[in-house]
Design goal:
Distance between the termini: 65 Å
Order of helices and strands: HEEHHEHEHEHEHEHEHEEHHHEH
Number of helices: 13
CATH topology of the largest domain: D-Maltodextrin-Binding Protein, domain 2
CATH class of the largest domain: Alpha Beta
Strand content: 15-25%
Number of domains: 2
C-alpha cells in the first residue's frame, strides 16, 4: 500500500511540475497568434516588435492552424534559448553564431528569409561630422573623437554584435561617459537616443516605423555594405522540443514564395514601401 501511495504522490508531483513548466512557458510569450493545440514558439526581437512575426503567423495559419508564441529576445538571447531548448525556433541576424550552432548540431534548417540595413542616426547638427564619413568605421571613429553621446544596446543582440564589429574595425575601444549603455530593445533605445539627442545604430525597419514620432534624430550615415543586416531562421533538431515539427513547417512556409510575399509586402500599406527586403535580394549580402 505504501508503495502505491508513493507512486500516486510522485505522479501528482510530476503533473504539477508539468503544469508549472507549461505556465512558465506561457508567461514568456510577448504575444500569441492563434488558439489551437498545435503550438510552437519563436524567439526574435525587431521582427516581433514591428509585427512581421504576426503577419507571417496569420498567413501560415490559413494553411496550417497553429498557435505561435512569440518570445521577445535579441539574437544572442534567442540563440541561447534555442540551445537550451526553451524555444522551438528563432529568427535572428548573427551569422557567425548561427553557423556555429549548425556546426555544433543543436540547430538545423538555417534559412535566409530577408534583410534590412543599419542606419547611424543622430542629431541634425551632427557634432561628430559622421555625414561626411566614407565608411561605418570612420563614422564611429568620429563619434569617439568628438565624445558625442552614442547609445549601445550592450545586450549581445545582433545589433550589438554588429556594432562591436564596427568598433573593432575603427580601432577604437569605446568607453567613457559618452558611451551610453541602454540594455533596451531596438525601439526603446531609439527613443532614448531621441530624448538625449545622441547617436545610435538602428535598423531601417524600426526607423521607418518610428521616425515620424521622433523629434531630435535624422539619418546621418548609411550605405556601407557591412551595415546590411541579413535574417535567418533556425529550429531545433527533430524530437528536441514539442513544437519542433510545426516550427520546421513554419520555416518552410516563410522561405516559400507565399511567405516571401508577406515579407515583401509588409509595411507597404502604411509606408508605401516594404520594411524588409526578401531573401532573393538578401542573397547578395549573405556570407
Amino acid at each position: 500500500m505504501k508503495s502505491k501511495n508513493l507512486f500516486v504522490c510522485l505522479l501528482l508531483i510530476g503533473m504539477l511540475l508539468g503544469l508549472s513548466n507549461q505556465l512558465v512557458a506561457e508567461e514568456k510569450c510577448a504575444e500569441t497568434y492563434g488558439v489551437t493545440a498545435t503550438r510552437f514558439s519563436l524567439a526574435t526581437g525587431s521582427p516581433g516588435e514591428l509585427g512581421l512575426v504576426k503577419a507571417l503567423a496569420e498567413a501560415f495559419n490559413k494553411e496550417k492552424n497553429a498557435s505561435l508564441c512569440w518570445v521577445k529576445a535579441g539574437s544572442g538571447d534567442s540563440l541561447k534559448m534555442l540551445k537550451e531548448k526553451q524555444v522551438d525556433m528563432i529568427m535572428v541576424h548573427a551569422p557567425a553564431a548561427e553557423k556555429k550552432a549548425i556546426e555544433d548540431g543543436w540547430a538545423i534548417k538555417r534559412a535566409l528569409i530577408g534583410s534590412n540595413e543599419f542606419y547611424v542616426v543622430g542629431p541634425p547638427e551632427d557634432p561628430a561630422g559622421i555625414a561626411k564619413a566614407k565608411t561605418a568605421a570612420e563614422a564611429y571613429r568620429n563619434i569617439a573623437q568628438s565624445a558625442s553621446p552614442f547609445l549601445t544596446r550592450a545586450d549581445n543582440s545582433g545589433t550589438h554584435k554588429k556594432e562591436l564589429d564596427i568598433w573593432k574595425a575603427s580601432g577604437v575601444e569605446p568607453s567613457g561617459n559618452w558611451y551610453v549603455v541602454s540594455k533596451g530593445f531596438m525601439l526603446d533605445t531609439l527613443k532614448k537616443a531621441d530624448e538625449m539627442g545622441g547617436y545610435f545604430m538602428t535598423d531601417s525597419s524600426t526607423w521607418t516605423e518610428a521616425n515620424q514620432s521622433l523629434k531630435r534624430l535624422k539619418i546621418l550615415f548609411r550605405g556601407d555594405p557591412v551595415m546590411i543586416n541579413t535574417y535567418h531562421t533556425l529550429c531545433q533538431p527533430p524530437g528536441a522540443t514539442a513544437g519542433q515539427a510545426v516550427a520546421a513547417e513554419f520555416i518552410d512556409f516563410v522561405a516559400s514564395n507565399k511567405g516571401q510575399q508577406v515579407i515583401r509586402d509588409f509595411g507597404k500599406d502604411r509606408f508605401g514601401e516594404g520594411l524588409y527586403n526578401d531573401a532573393e535580394y538578401a542573397k547578395q549580402y549573405d556570407h
